[in-house]
Amino acid sequence: MTRIALTINGRPVKAEVEPRTHLADFLREAQALTGTNLGCEHGVCGACTIEIDGAPARSCIAYAVACEGASVRTIEGFDDDAVMAELRAAFTAEHALQCGYCTSGMLITARDIVLRLPAADEARIRKELAGNLCRCTGYVGIVRAVQRVLSARRSAATPNRPDTPA
Amino acid sequence: MKAAPFDYARPRDVGEAVKLLAGAGEGGKPMAGSQSLGPMLNLRLVQPALIVDLRGIEELRATSETTDAVVFGACVTHADIEDARVPDPARGLMREVASNIAYRAVRNRGTIGGSLSHADPAADWPSALALLGATVILEGPGGRREVPAEKFVTGVFETVLRTGEVLVGVRVPKVSRRARTGYWKFCRKPGEFPQAIGGVLDDPERGTVRAVIGATRGPPHVLGDARALLSRPGDAALLALADAAALADDAYDRQLHAVALRRALERLPA
Amino acid sequence: MTAKGVGARLPRKEDRRFLKGQGEYVANLRLAGMLDVAFVRSPMAHARIRAIAKPRGREAEVFSAADLLGVRPIRAVSGLKGFKASDQPVLATGKVRQVGELVAMCVAPTRAAAEDLADLVELDLEELPAVVDMIEARSRPAALVHEEWGDNVFLESLADDDLSGIRRDAAVTVRRTIRTARQHMSPLEGRGVICEWNRRLDQLVMHSATQMPHINRAGLADCLGVDQGSIRVIAPDVGGGFGYKGILLPEEVCLAWLCRKLGRPVRWIEDRREQLSANANCREHHYDITVYADARGRLLGIDCEATVDSGAYSSYPFSACLEGAQVSSILPGPYKMERFRCRTWSVATNKAPILPYRGVARTGVCFALEVAIDAVARALKMEPHEVRLANLVQPGEMPYLNITKKHFDGGDYPEAVRRAARMIDVAAVRARQKRAETDGRRIGVGFAIYCEQAAHGTSVYFGWGIPMVPGHEQCAARLSPDGGLELRIGAHSHGQGMETTMAQVAHSVLGIDPENVRLVHGDTGLTPYSTGTWGSRSMVMSGGAVAAACDEIAGRVKAIAAKLLEVAAQDLVLENGHVRVAGTDRKLALAEIAHVWYRKPQLLPADVDPAGLEATAGYKAKVDTGTFSYACHAATVAVDTETGHVEILDYVVVEDGGKLINPMIVDGQVFGGTAQGIGTALYEEMPFDAQGQPLATTLADYLLPGATEVPAIRIDHIETVSPHTRFGQKGIGEGGAIAPPAAIANAVNDALAPLGVEITESPLTPRRIAEAVMKARA
Q1: Second-level CATH architecture of B7-53
Q2: Out of B42, C173, C587, C752, which residue is the most buried by the measure of CB atoms under 10 Å away?
Q3: Statement: the pTM of the whole predicted model exceeds 0.95
């Protein structure tokens, strides 16, 4: 067992973990943060996407021990985030989810697109979403939801502002 | 799919990493972004006794620049290159290659050193860096040595790395102002591993015309003198090139490699 | 029909928890003292088990068939004459018959530790020749999957007819061999089971990601030899099903047994590699099809020999023959013809037992027939959509009994084709094809039309010999003391949005705000019996039951309100959560009426119904043949003839689902189904080697369509109300997945026709396309 100390959703966390435990299992099993879902455990489907140090990452192929000192943010950590709130409203308006299993990871990737690529067109949005698989929606609602948020933000001419601190 | 148990160490400098890896022998594996190693561990395709995490070593995340080259530390990520947080000695080619590796979430963690050392034949960096005539910097119990990138990968998941040795950096020569590059790969889906890679570098100021055929059954195939390609040979000549390198399993694979090379040539700016 | 009832694009209530990561999928449940299970699975497709060696000192943590005393095998027997039954032992006994078959169960405090333990179990297997190719399996078998059968055929059937006349008269005869690959349904959430023992109720509680909890309960009770009352099955939030979770699993039986043995909760969560390597179980068909047509493109008849690769066992409850039984009855689709003959084999192979995947056999038969029809069109130099128009049943002929005695209730199939042709703009594609593309790619357009029988009932399933026959569907409705409505149904959502759509139905009947309606579903302890969610039945059957139960509640409410307001019940209207006297402003809230029933019975009418504000009502569609929704899909593609890559430039769907309860959700089902169809058409296949080893066991090899593979699909709706259902709605959940392989193959073949290339195998991978082009040029 190895001792680690990191920040999860703004909270300092100290724990003992087996090195082989991936970050997703550590979050789900040891920290009771079950909003992050496992779809493949080999880094392809994107269901497990969270943020490490402010950037989207796959939690199934990151090891908890390797996140010593890191700041991890899961879907639960975006409850009060303003950009995420816009995305949630857009996801519902555009029917961008059905079974919900891909949704946590999809939202985190979508938020990264909205903040990092404010001028993204449909083709770019699709390319950036390619690493998050959905088996239910055919992506139509998801792409429309991201477009809706991007477009609203362009109209509001809001400069790229930092998100609420983790 | 949970990995088999392993021990974990997070050294703070390269010397410590080398010592740990040398001590572990065949049972030791370095880990950087874990984007390639993670799936293999979870699938139990590899079961090392010791993982040596390189991400705690400051110097491996650093990039330095001289008039002639850029040296990337092994732990520079694809996203660092994509986002131009580090210089691009290839005047845009490295950014283009980086931005089309896998998916953003992978690029945020995956590293240039990790990708090279893992030596998946379908990965981009082994082919792209071989094309650019880069040099790989290794450090091991015997000290530091340098290997041309085109000689570094020797087969599928095979490199010249000796026990205890670790890749610490890559030196990429800067292309001159009038250099042209073209890179094209065929993937069934964007972000998935390519089935064929073609790359061309035309740098008249340095007197260099190079080409690479990648995503083959073996190491990337470099044409050190690819001048003849600039006059746009026909398909038959390209197919012959693919064939001569004994790279492909069958006619379709050969065709893909020939097509990749031709489309890389077509992407050279006029 | 208001902004919140039937017909409204009401945003979904269930979104709230999923958008915050608060979905309760089975893997999210935490039970004190829970242990994790990993299975030892067969590495071989076909082998005799000589020995299973448990690791020394850990024998108490590993269980094989010999330990599971009294546990009966899974058995699903088709009622069709000639069906050969087989037992599926929950842990392999005697032989293993597929890669991934369960051999032993290992239990440990964590999944990782259980996998460590599984790695220590040694299997001594004597390999046998693997039965891999379904055609060879039935004609020249290398081995027998079930030795006692004497062959590898679950069932052979023949729908016979005399084709001698049409063979003689046909101006065009098109004969094709068509193959569709084996696939994996790949919901993003895999299967998962937790079993715990409730001591107070003396009951096994199984939480399982299942589409049919009541059926799982029945099957489990059979296997364990216990009464059904001692088992409760709860389906929590389920992350996609598509048919993959409509099965009694050997894993479920094993965990139920283990839970009782250990007296502790136990958990098994399927991981992606288990899923892909052990459970590629659908879509694999082979057709030898001959289509006879006259000089004007009118279909004279079809002759077909169809084979379905049904895998090693007969899965419960659908049995190994559902697809085979369907093929001959649905192949003709909505076309008119004089003669039809079809012989079908359901063949046993050393692969996972077949399960019905979204669309079931319709996807395969649509592919076979529609590809052949395009070949007829090319032979006659007619536009493919014109050939379809010449043969589809006309609206004036409805209701129509087709050549296989399917009762088509209504609809305008030719209109769907005409609209699709306009939307995809065939004329523009033809003009574009005359000009060369600057990038050298070839453009093509393709069509496919199908009909989807849904919510079909008793006599249909009985006729197909399926051991599970649906009857009436029930809903239990209850108005709570504060005027909220609770609806309980045995069907279960795995993405269909029933918490919203059933609330919309309640709103239309009772006037209650959907926000005040709570759906309880998928729990055998709380809900009426249901065969579950499959076959696009829920909106018709459960929706009809919800409406019927709400009707009953409406009657009870009005009777009480009539007394309180001193009017006749028929003068009352239900709206906006109130009961109002028509033509006046006098009204009472549902909450006030409920309050009287529960808290002030002294004010009730003397003849009040003693059943109060709780009602259970049942429903089934007026005809057992259910509903027929249909759609025409059209696609334009660009084919790179050098790499074989196909880009879908445009994709349109003209769809008739009858009255749409929630058009937004219907569109979502069409988009999602179409995306899966695109996967079938271009990307998804599970190849097997000669030893029966599955070759695409990670998502790097088994390619699922992502946002770059699925275009912006355009949908147009025709709403031909069904005369047989409560609101005129039809089942539509599967339709999107039926037509894309045919439409896309037809588009590719249209693009490549000038090169003399025609592909008759799915998926149309880049390799297959490029090799066909290379071969044609040679």
Answers
A1: 2-Layer Sandwich (3.30)
A2: B42
A3: yes
